[in-house]
Amino acid sequence: MNYRDEWTKKYEEDGIQASEEVFTKFHCRFCSKDYELDNNGESKIKRHISTDKHKKNKGEHHPTDKYKDQVSTFNRNRNTFITRNKLAI
Ligand SMILES: [Zn+2]
User: Fold this and answer.
1) Poorest-pLDDT segment among 6-10, 32-36, 37-41
2) How far is the CA of 31 from the centre of ligand 1 (A)?
3) Phi, psi angle pair for 20, to nearest 5°
4) Where are the beta strands (DSSP E) in 6-87?
5) Cα of 28 to ligand 1 centre, how many Å?
6) Of 49, 35, 32, 48, nearest to 87 (Cα)?
7) Element (H, E) at 30
8) CA 79 to ligand 1 center in whole angstroms
């Protein structure tokens, strides 16, 4: 299953965005990691954001700092700009 752009908006609070590597992964800004999607794509995201690890990482980020250090990079594979946290690079 490929990443769907609507998930970025839907899971914005949980820092979910497209992976820059492949269509079949999503990137978590809070955990600074890419995770595989499976056939139930979205359920993988739901499962990830319910893990203690993710909640802990999310808790350590101050909400007001959320967009402070973001940078946009152009991704040739996806033909779109991807915004991600500088700290996650
Ligand atoms: Zn996470």
Assistant:
1) 37-41
2) 4
3) -85, -10
4) 16-18, 25-28, 33-36, 70-75, 80-85
5) 5
6) 32
7) none
8) 25
Query: Considering the entire predicted model, what is its pTM?
Result: 0.66
Whether the per-residue pLDDT at 46 is higher than 80: the answer is: yes
Q: How many residues does the chain have?
A: 89
Domain ranges, ordered by start, for the chain: 6-88
- Tokens encoding 26: 């999503």
Give yes or no for residue 61 having a pLDDT over 70. Answer: no
Q: Which residues contact 38 (CB under 8 A, 6 or more apart)?
A: 1, 44
Answer yes or no: is pLDDT of 89 > 70: no
Distance 54 CA to ligand 1 centre (A): 4
Cα 30 to averaged position of ligand 1 atoms, centre (Å)? 5
Strand partners, 34: 27
